[in-house]
TrEMBL record, chains A, B:
Stored InterPro entries: aa-tRNA-synt_IIb, aa-tRNA-synth_II, aa-tRNA-synth_II/BPL/LPL, Anticodon-bd, Anticodon-bd_dom_sf, Pro-tRNA-ligase_IIa_arc-type, Pro-tRNA_ligase_II_C, Pro-tRNA_synth_II
Keywords: Aminoacyl-tRNA synthetase, ATP-binding, Cytoplasm, Ligase, Nucleotide-binding, Protein biosynthesis
SUPFAM superfamilies assigned to the protein according to its UniProt record, in alphabetical order: C-terminal domain of ProRS, Class II aaRS ABD-related, Class II aaRS and biotin synthetases
Xref: PANTHER family: BIFUNCTIONAL GLUTAMATE_PROLINE--TRNA LIGASE (PTHR43382:SF2), PROLYL-TRNA SYNTHETASE (PTHR43382)
Coiled-coil segments on the chain, per record: none
NCBIfam families: proS_fam_I
Quaternary structure annotation from Swiss-Prot or TrEMBL: Homodimer.
Biological process per Gene Ontology, one example term: prolyl-tRNA aminoacylation
This protein's name: Proline--tRNA ligase
Transmembrane stretches, start-end: none
Length: 490, 490
């Protein structure tokens, strides 16, 4: 099969688009900026959901569901929140269509809403308005709730998974009696995200805090995990916000403390989205197609038979039945591609494109020799191995592939963190190498904005593990006490 | 605790509302007609989802995701479809808010959409528009896709779970090469729903077909499952539609058949929604609270300790640790309610209200005797049983409870199907007894409408298993060949 994928070196951005479409992950919908997530892509997202959902429940959270629509007035109760979201909102103004008498369907102007409704871009406002009814005393706290939902942010420039007008996500919204407990929650969920990114997505991440300029609208502190893509650009893969008492104050949510005092509740929110699909594709894949970590691959092993006669086919079928049974027993997801409409070479290319971690091919000679050909997607290597003990070998190979994919991404990331001490150096590294640039910054919003204007690089985060170090800001020469990470970002 | 639930005999409708709210299943949101599904209610819905999703995958379906918004023009391409949905649609007309300069947030009139977007009330149109790009030849068929999503139908009179402006559901949308295959699919999914309703929800259902008047807008045939609530009203619990080639024609979706001919594709769609939560509550619960079938109960067993001293508590704790370990090992979901802020009697009432199938209570004397008190929610019976073999006993009791709840609902349903042969009899049964009324009908939309106007009863379905039987229509005296089921319905 002709894959029709642009190479990364030729045009990275086009490579990404080609790959997402050719590998059947998603496509643009007829509605501007929205996407259709196709079954193969959705299968990966479902795996992400299931694993994250388990993690959320293990850390004490329950799922719930809040309305899609938010009254406009709610939305403006938290001043910085409305500023952050007002310019990209879908607004519902009517609740009925009608026939205009000439056979045209038009909006029925008599069915105008008294108050416009905003399609949720995020749910802090509607949720905190609801929490007011749930919280009276410290005994009602903490509330540890998560929601899996669709949200809408009207984006002018969209890219499949990375930036779409509608996307799928989860948003955790928790309520606490103390500041300390809320901060701990925000940090705990950042750790959940980081562990997930590294062990499941196989994407190494840097845990950090956002600067004031990059913070979530309405947060006192935004924690984030930042990943690096193969083109040297960073991608924010998840955020966890300490919201202080901002939303509790905006929605008048108070509780009686153990000491009998009436106090405002402390809040966090945290989320990851279908953007992770973009991170997954861009972190690992190559010019031949997707490279999926086994823990997320909808199909972990594909088996392709090679035969000339019905007799040969029958022998292979019998063996494959047996092998598939063994693999399914140990929880390996396996597909037998016995289509008679396509040749083996076509199938090899197709499963390579779709990122299946392991391919088993076997023909008549293999059956005689008691062997199969095993091909790894991540290293593009093949070997002939014995049928004996094959399922155990496959199991351990899948683990090895998961680790190898992570290690490869880690090596790339680590070799793309560059310390610089001057603005000239900064610009040179940004231009020629990309990646994260570790440097001193004077801590002002103004400096950050000017660097962004001049170079398009932003402060991705102030790493949580960064040591205090005296230095001077590369841009203003003012004193600084620790390095931050700049990068161009998705 | 005071439960504050109206009794069923006093006001069935109020009983339902009280119960949904007091048992923490859901509440009305600040947005008209929308609901908040609370963690306990959502926990039940999640179990429904997981079980249905497994069934869908076992029957060959994959999940995918299509956009929330549908361009207005799409919506009107299938004539009967638009008629069915136009009068209850949320319409997005703008994509931005702004500050009016006086600190008020208003809709930015400069950000008006060229074409209004409809928030999906169902997704046939956007999906069939997408399928056009996926289907070229018979090799691309069948497409067996399901979507879990939120939909919006602007309802004027709403009731929690039963009828809300936004609700959660799944919608299957399949594409086939032949009429026969599509009909088989629609029937297969009806069977999946019926099996789920009976074995999981413990709600007996009648499988049938809708009359022309009650059909889904755009379907050639609508299959349904109809359940009976305790007040004698019917509830449609799931539908599966044979759509013929209607949507393929509206969206120009053709395929090349094996014989090389260009033909329109055949379609089905099928769905169940959070409405099932309402059916679950109304079918089984009583004046004391919810009665949940064990297969859906988020907590299957609650353990309540009764003690006076710390020493007594310690002994109980040790035993409970052991019991919980055993129960979790066999997959029983169990909660130890050791709150020290509430008395045992309060806890008993609370878990009764929340429908936990089995309660284990144990005090100092039980510890001496090696016993516990076991209380069943469904029969409201208690017995003292040995601690020996308790977890096995609990496991089998949960199975027994599941069956008993179903049997009780089945007995009620079966005793509420009444055959009548005259309109007077019809009206009398409808008034005094309710339930399903089996009678002859002349097959005309006109007659059905007139009976509905006069009695509020509608034809719930033409049962799939009904025998041909000569008769005369109770309303017009015209000839009829089989009985249909009338009822008042939710």
């Amino acid at each position: 099969m002709s894959k029709g994928i642009t190479s990364r070196s030729e045009d990275y951005s086009q490579w990404y688009n080609d790959l997402v479409i050719k590998a059947d992950l998603a496509e643009y919908a007829a509605v501007r900026g929205c996407m259709v997530i196709k079954p193969y892509g959705y299968g990966i997202w479902e795996r992400m959901q299931a694993i994250l959902d388990k993690r959320f429940k293990e850390t004490g959270h329950s799922n719930a569901y809040f309305p899609l629509f938010i009254p406009k007035s709610f939305f403006s109760k938290e001043a910085s929140h409305v500023e952050g979201f007002a310019t990209e909102c879908a607004v519902v103004t009517h609740y009925r269509l009608k026939n205009d008498g000439n056979g045209n369907i038009i909006v029925d102007e008599e069915a105008k809403l008294e108050e416009e409704l905003i399609v949720r871009p995020t749910s802090e406002t509607i949720i905190w308005n609801t929490y007011r009814g749930w919280i009276e005393s410290y005994r009602d706290l903490p509330i540890l709730v998560n929601q899996w939902a669709n949200v809408v942010r009207w984006e002018m420039r969209t890219r499949l998974f990375l930036r779409t007008s509608e996307f799928l996500w989860q948003e955790g919204h928790t309520a606490h009696a103390t500041e300390q407990e809320a901060i701990e929650e925000a940090e705990r969920m950042l750790d959940v995200y980081a562990e997930f990114a590294e062990n499941i997505l196989a994407v190494p991440v840097i845990r950090g805090r956002k600067t004031e300029n990059e913070r979530f609208a309405g947060a006192l502190d935004t924690y984030c995990i930042e990943a690096l893509m193969q083109d040297g650009k960073a991608l924010q893969a998840g955020t966890s916000h300490f919201l202080g008492q901002n939303f509790a104050k905006a929605f008048d949510v108070k509780f009686t403390s153990k000491e009998g005092k009436l106090e405002h509740v402390w809040a966090t929110s945290w989320g990851v989205s279908t953007r992770l699909m973009g991170a997954l594709v861009m972190a690992h894949s190559d010019d031949q197609g997707l490279v999926l970590p086994p823990k997320l691959a909808p199909i972990q092993v594909v088996i392709v038979p090679i035969f000339r006669t019905e007799e040969e086919k029958a022998a292979i079928d019998t063996y494959v039945d047996h092998l598939m049974g063994e693999l399914k027993n140990v929880g390996v997801s396996v597909k037998f591609d016995d289509r008679d409409t396509q040749r083996p070479g076509f199938k090899f290319a197709e499963w390579e494109l779709k990122g299946v971690p392991l391919r088993v091919a076997l023909g008549a000679r293999d059956m005689q020799n008691g062997t199969v050909e095993l091909a790894r997607r991540d290293t593009q290597t093949k070997e002939t191995v014995s049928q004996e003990g094959l399922s155990a070998r496959i199991e351990s190979l899948l683990d090895e592939i998961q680790i190898n994919i992570y290690q490869k991404a880690l090596n790339f990331r680590d070799s793309h963190i560059t310390e610089v001490n001057s603005y000239d150096e900064f610009k040179e590294v940004l231009d020629k190498k990309g990646g994260f640039i570790s440097c001193h910054w004077d801590g002002s919003v103004e400096t950050e904005k000017r660097i962004k204007e001049e170079t398009k690089a932003t402060i991705r985060c102030i790493p949580l593990d960064s040591k205090k170090e005296e230095g001077i800001c590369i841009f203003t020469g003012k004193p600084s006490v620790q390095r931050v990470l700049f990068a161009k970002a998705y």
